[in-house]
UniProtKB/TrEMBL annotation:
InterPro entries: Longin-like_dom_sf (IPR011012), Longin_dom (IPR010908). One of its GO terms (cellular component) is Golgi apparatus. Keywords: Lipoprotein, Membrane, Methylation, Palmitate, Prenylation, Protein transport, Transport. GO terms for molecular function: SNAP receptor activity. It is a lipid-anchor. Residues 8-127 form the Longin domain. This is YKT6B protein. It comes from Cinclus mexicanus (American dipper). GO terms for biological process: endoplasmic reticulum to Golgi vesicle-mediated transport; protein transport. It is found in: Endomembrane system.
């Protein structure tokens, strides 16, 4: 059971943009890592873009299961995991991350922010905590 990525995005007009993300691509070979990370970023944006405001969904993409939660204010979160990772835990994580993010990052920054300009460092910690929490390692 693995988590590969955790992303926070903003679903504005006309498209979705990435605000912050964390990745765990350590299980892939060194030469695959950047393309896998690119795929996960692209997939997260695409799924958030296709999801309605106020919705939750789980979408199978290749060998991954992508869990998306788009809040009614346009803030969205996407977790990419393997097929065995429990769906309920993914949505609990998304709830927690989006609530915390919306408290710590001004809504003004959602509109024009990018991973380089948003200061929110908790994603890597959440990704590793939930990795360890489930796998027991």
């Amino acid at each position: 059971m693995r988590l590969y990525s955790l992303s926070v995005l903003y679903k504005g007009d006309p498209k979705v943009h990435l605000l912050k993300a964390a990745y765990d691509v350590s299980t892939f070979s060194f030469f695959q890592r950047s393309s896998v990370q690119e795929f996960m970023t692209f997939t997260s944006q695409l799924i958030a873009e296709r999801s309605a405001l106020g919705s939750r969904a789980s979408v199978k993409e290749q060998e991954y299961l992508c869990h998306v939660y788009v809040r009614s204010d346009g803030l969205a979160g996407v977790v990419i995991a393997d097929n065995e990772y429990p769906q309920r835990v993914c949505f609990t994580l998304l709830d927690k991350v989006l609530d915390e993010f919306s408290r710590q990052v001004s809504k003004m920054d959602w509109l024009s922010g990018s991973p380089a300009t948003i200061s929110y460092s908790a994603l890597d910690g959440y990704l590793s905590t939930y990795q360890v929490h489930i796998s027991g390692t």
